[in-house]
């Protein structure tokens, strides 16, 4: 029996089946600067021809601020960019696109991108797709304007500014960063000035602060957002985020973390996992109690490393919405089976002979 088979059996028979949110409370993830940024976006939207929403590809079905339609974009052409595609599997992308369009018809097109890859075909397709959407839309009072103005929106830390810099640098061959970037949520706190990214046709982009949903009602959705670094680690708690990620990885039979951390097998307890990982990686600290100094595992530092490595894809590529995707596929199979029974057809849709 291979170790993966043994680990799956261990997880399925002995580990947590559900995540216990006892002790957690619903939180307001909508800081003051988001209210200010949203109002500024609403004032600018009349001078915008198209909206590009950037979102984290690891949570394609959850975590999106679906209130943008009512609060910002309205009837403007809407292009959805699922960024950080290098962190997710290549499977199920057609299904994801189909389900997003069914649930949110205002989305005109969907593109998967890796904003850190200068050769990414998805990134290169963004401007041509956006310009095409604009040229086939009613621009109302902006019909006579020679330029195209596009607003970049999305929740915090999904790569909006990185995408803007990539488009600008590749089209205009200009180095540097026109939009500030960082690996923490909330780098862009205010609406930026228009950034020219293309001369023919003349295209400007507006970078905006990340705007989360006013209320995250589902604790699972909130923890997924935290795991993907779109919420402040210090607000949610690094140890709590590690615990949720560990539970999800085990439940999904994603055991890449075991070998990467130097563990012997999967662990269900996050504190025990972090302790063993800290020892395996030599992350120790000295603590003095009652005048006696001892060396102990540095759990806090290990938690920070665990989050960094997970978010960098070092444990493997995963969708945090895999459960939802599996449910959709199962439902589609049931619908297909029912159709075959009712219409006496085979898997290819041909009528069976009597």
Automatic annotation (TrEMBL):
Annotated keywords: GTP-binding, Nucleotide-binding
Give the transmembrane region(s): none
Organism expressing this protein natively: Acartia pacifica (Copepod)
Q: What is the lineage of its organism?
A: Eukaryota, Metazoa, Ecdysozoa, Arthropoda, Crustacea
| UniProt cross-references to SUPFAM superfamilies, sorted A to Z | P-loop containing nucleoside triphosphate hydrolases
Mind naming one GO cellular-component term on file for this protein?
mitochondrion
A Gene Ontology molecular function term of the record: GTP binding
Which Gene3D superfamilies does this chain map to?
1.10.1580.10, P-loop containing nucleotide triphosphate hydrolases
Q: What is this protein called?
A: Mitochondrial GTPase 1
Where is each CP-type G domain found?
Answer: 35-214
Q: Name one Pfam family in it.
A: MMR_HSR1
Any one of the GO BP annotations: mitochondrial translation
């Amino acid at each position: 029996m291979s170790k993966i088979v043994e680990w799956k059996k261990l997880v399925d028979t002995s580990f947590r089946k559900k995540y216990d949110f006892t002790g957690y409370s619903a939180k307001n993830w909508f800081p003051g600067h988001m209210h200010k940024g949203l109002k500024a976006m609403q004032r600018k939207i009349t001078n915008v021809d198209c909206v590009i929403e950037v979102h984290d590809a690891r949570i394609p079905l959850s975590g999106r601020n679906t209130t943008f339609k009512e609060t910002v974009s309205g009837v403007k052409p809407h292009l959805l960019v699922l960024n950080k595609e290098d962190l997710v599997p290549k499977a199920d992308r057609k299904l994801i696109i189909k389900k997003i369009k069914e649930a949110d018809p205002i989305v005109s097109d969907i593109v998967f991108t890796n904003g850190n890859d200068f050769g990414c075909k998805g990134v290169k397709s963004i401007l041509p797709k956006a310009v095409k959407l604009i040229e086939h839309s009613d621009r109302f009072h902006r019909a006579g304007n020679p330029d195209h103005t596009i607003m970049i929106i999305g929740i915090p830390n999904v790569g909006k500014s990185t995408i803007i810099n990539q488009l600008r640098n590749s089209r205009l061959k200009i180095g540097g960063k026109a939009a500030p970037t960082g690996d923490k949520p909330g780098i862009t706190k205010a609406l930026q000035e228009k950034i020219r990214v293309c001369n023919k046709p003349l295209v400007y982009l507006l970078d905006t602060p990340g705007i989360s949903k006013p209320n995250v009602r589902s604790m699972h959705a909130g923890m997924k957002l935290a795991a993907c670094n779109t919420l402040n680690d210090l607000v949610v708690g690094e140890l709590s985020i590690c615990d949720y990620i560990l539970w999800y990885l085990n439940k999904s039979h994603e055991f890449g973390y075991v070998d990467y951390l130097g563990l012997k097998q999967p662990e269900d307890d996050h504190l025990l996992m972090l302790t063993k990982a800290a020892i395996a990686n030599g992350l120790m600290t000295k603590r003095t109690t009652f005048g006696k100094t001892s060396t102990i595992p540095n759990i806090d530092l290990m938690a920070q490393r665990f989050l960094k490595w997970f978010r960098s894809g070092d444990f493997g590529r995963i969708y945090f919405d895999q459960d939802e995707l599996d449910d959709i596929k199962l439902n589609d199979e049931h619908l297909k089976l029912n159709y075959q029974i009712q219409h006496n057809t085979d898997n290819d849709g041909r009528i069976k002979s009597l």
